[in-house]
Specification:
Elements lengths: L2 H4 L7 E3 L4 E3 L2 E3 L6 E3 H5 L6 E3 L5 E7 L4 H17 L2 E7 L5 H15 L3 H9 L7 H10 L4 H10 L1 H18 L6 E4 L2 E4 L4 H12 L1
Parallel strand pairs: 6-7
Antiparallel strand pairs: 1-2, 2-9, 3-4, 5-7, 6-8, 8-9
Helix pairs in contact: 4-5, 4-7
Length: 208
Amino acid sequence: MPLTTRRTLLTGGLIAAASGVGLMSLLRSPASAKEMTVEDVLFDPDNPVLGNPEGDVTIVEFFDYQCPYCKANHPPLTEVVEADGNIRLVMKDWPIFGATSVRAAQLTLGAASLGRYEAASNALMETEGKLSAELIDETLEQAGFDVAALDKAYRGERDKWDGLMSRNSEQASLIGLQGTPAFIVGTTLYPGAMDAKALKDAVDRARG
């Protein structure tokens, strides 16, 4: 499918920008006619927020714990966020690589219920290769988590976390994403991996 077609919604919800794709203030689902604003994407109240929650620029990443490009991109992303100090980082769990990806997302969101999302997420981002249930459990245990407690915490707020992942998936579909990673910096979409320089430049453009 041509790139321009992938990036364009029936309502014109995406427009070409100088260095990415700009999100317009209103997104509409062709199937449901449901309206979705940019604020819905950037400020979902259930989504964990890393970095500076009061930051003047938001970076959103749609990701999967089995995506090798997401894992490779995570160190420069976190380095840029930490060095800047004024960036909200919103990690949108979008488990597109099957049941194992869903399980990884469920457990990290369970960690969010316990106030430890970042530690769980970072631990899984440091894994190499394809995940298995055993590797997920081992990784989280080595990071100091009780996997049974994470599962219980997730199930205790299952409606909330399943609803969040469902909205993430719907947003990805409306935006026209074809895979992970995909970033929104400010209100501009950047499909694909971004190195530190590209991220810094995108943040500068968002502030400008």
